[in-house]
User: Fold these one by one.
Assistant:
Number 1:
Amino acid sequence: MTRFGTWLRAEPDGIYCPPGDFWIDPGQPRPRALITHGHADHARSGHGTVIATAETLAIMAARYGPQPGGKAVAYGQPIRVGEVRVCFYPAGHVLGSAQILLEYAGERIVVSGDFKRTPDPTCPPCVPVPCDVFITEATFALPVFHHPPAEKEIAKLLDARASAPERCVLVGAYALGKAQRLIALLRAAGYERPVYLHGALTQLTRLYEALGVRLGDVQPMAGLPKAALKGEIILCPPSALADRWSRRLPDPITAMASGWMRLRQRARQKNVELPLILSDHADWGELTATIGELAPAEVWVTHGREEALVHWCQQKGIPARALLLHGREDEED
Ligand SMILES: [Zn+2]
Ligand SMILES: [Zn+2]
């Protein structure tokens, strides 16, 4: 039996809050939407008023065009939406990503959106927010998902590059968050050569730079002769890995940066020679440690492998249930 959060409704395409008359990350256009972050399964176009961080609004504008109904909120600055007190906190997932704290009727509910606890040079770290109900994502909520240290994966990438000077390394990385984090991690590892981009990654990478994330020398690869790309690192969207497009590259070592690369089968399916396990989502250890740290009265689970996390919570004596929201499985990571 649920005791908390009777004032929040989990609908198939999002969470609706009647006393605030708003939706969180709705899958369809709604008059008033609170958006946790810019990934396409959370931030759709066509809402009336959009309440989000300035960075998320900028990402949405880059993807969908101007957002006339956008209202920017700063982290840690509470606002009132209808009868509900709302406050955004960093989620550590991608630039601008937020967990949303809702306060109403003496209860505190946190919607995590997507989050990770591992440090990320491209966004502020996740802030755990004490609450009665923690609504958590569960993208990698199975014990098999243990993300290795990012530095280790970056070292694998640099080793592969160094060992094949006649080839290039082509890394599939999602356009929002992963590509920029990968570049920032390369810089942190001391790599100073230009990083080359497929055209589909340019716009959001430039936006990150405009928003103050320093990425060093990043260049479009378009127009460069094959020979000039020997020994270089090139990033592309995962869909371009198997494309005819890559034939213009010098014998690429095909890599992919994703939490899903933990599964060898996925790497094989995608013909990935160099799987890099680099995720922007909490792994099993981070999910369970976060719930342990917050010790909420209830946990609601969404976004992936709900069952295992619900079971874990129940074993720890924390009432938990799965919210079945549509279209949130297997997020691009
Ligand atoms: Zn996301
Ligand atoms: Zn997501």
Note: Residues 39, 41-42, 114, 303, 328, 331 surround zinc ion (ligand 2) (CB under 6 Å).
Number 2:
Amino acid sequence: METGAELEPAQRWLTSPAAAPAITAAAELVQTRSPLAAATAFAQTFPELPAAHRAAALSAATLDSAAQSKGYPAGLLWTRTGLEQSTGPLTAARRAHILRNAGITSIIDITAGLGMDARAMLEAGLVVTAVETDPTTAAYLAHNLGAITQPAADAPFNVRCADSSDPAVLAELRGISPEAWFVDPARRSASHDGNRSRPERDPELWSPPWSFVEDLRTTVQPARVAAKVAPGFSPAEHWYAEWVSVDRTVVECALYSWPVFQSQRQCAVWLDGWHVVQASDVGQREPVDVGSGPIQSLLLEVDPAVIRCGALIDLAEEIPGTHLVDLKSSWLTAEHLDRSERMQALVRAYQVIDEVPSAPRKLRDALRARGITAAALKTGDVHIDAAAVRKELRVQDDDEQAVVFTKAGSGNRAFIVERIR
Ligand SMILES: C[S@@+](CC[C@H](N)C(=O)[O-])C[C@H]1O[C@@H](n2cnc3c(N)ncnc32)[C@H](O)[C@@H]1O
């Protein structure tokens, strides 16, 4: 690794092979004992280590254990912020395979962090140059890229500790002539209390700022830039965008400056494999084709990524006998349950028990009359304060039973439903 900055001795030691036995021993202790007991036992086992090295090993082991619970492999080096910002293993692997399938064989990751995207790209067989501005993160990045054991990942990699938005650095990177560039801007800023970072909503305050990424898109040759942005970001039309959902949470919006997939907007939802829904071009379709109709026996709650990419109507068209509850609603309604794996991934089905008034007082009476004391409140479609409504209804939260609030014409409708799967 080319790095200009010096690390703390304990951090440098962590990246050396000499630290491995101590980190392994610390990992066992932090998983089985309280922090204090683990520290005491560790000091007894490694009395010769300086206190700063012992603290570093215990911290590395604690973060490694937290990372493993998020699905990352064991044995990587983490910082707390780096772990928060890292792409999840499934999502990183998806991006790497999209790039590989698009014929990309070399890439520069200009904001590599601790290397979770870079690792996936290496594992997919790409030659990777990984650039990271923070010296500690860059040192851990080099360790993490070197720790890949998968035999397919035999392509070379190069780690650079540098500010990739610096014109001189950028000029050097251009000289490498990669087939594509990848940017995952840091979207966290230090909070005013000084110890926790908080998400930054203004893309111009990301590092590097979004305008830098747009400039890169128009100045690199070949013009292939991939980026990772927050799920709530609204990309300009020239980007091919895919919203990615894991465990019914939209984890990112993945952008590509060139056509790596057919539709300009799509989503990918994970359930034992990726399920993609493409959004057809809004101008090419009549939205009323599968518009509203009577409520049938099922209400279908669609994965949020489908809604985010604008493919709700496309999904309704895909499921025979299904239509929107209303053109303003995010709920679909159907008579029969499609039990295919794809539909299990894309929708959650609820049996409609009854339509009830949506006004809180009347709704409370309706719930009482039916003996309902617990229900999830599905309020995503309507502008109501779910916590205040729950208080007024005096119901506990629930997994199986729910009240769905949705839009209909100029007003709201509410339904008591029961989860089918
Ligand atoms: C969101 S993290 C990247 C996470 C990475 N994709 C992963 O999955 O592990 C962004 C990283 O970019 C680094 N960074 C921000 N601005 C940079 C710049 N101008 N040059 C190089 N690195 C930068 C930050 O220090 C941070 O580690």
Note: The chain has three domains: 9-69, 83-229, 284-419.
Number 3:
Amino acid sequence: MPIEPGFFRIPADPNAPPRLLGSRCRSCQEVFYPRRRICARCLTRDTEDLELSTRGSLYTYTYVHFPLFNSRRADHGGYGVGQVDLPEGPRVQAVLSGGPGDFRVGMEMVIELETLRENEAGQDVVVYRFRPAKATQATSAASAKVEPS
Ligand SMILES: [Zn+2]
């Protein structure tokens, strides 16, 4: 189950990516994430629900060298955070899946689910995150550090 309702939908197909739940203004066509009842651009109260694309372009990112709060991945020692531009327009901030050398501005990212923990009912509590759509060849080169002589 989602950590908080209303932000994304988990498809019935376990191999399918989650879908972010956005809104589109019927008047000016601006798209928002998360959902809005009133358009922030033209203030019309006429928005419709829209499921956003599962892929986008990495606008910017950083790598936090500290374990992710509340995560099972505490042993990883850090995590990426980035902003992903979706084709519909919204720029979504999310945790990134991968190591510090795995990201490049402008690369294609795909959304996926991460299980944070189990709740009292034994259900997995999940969040969404983005990972690079393709493994980069540059990763191995970037991790092969050149020591100063
Ligand atoms: Zn509008």
Note: Helices lie at 138-143.
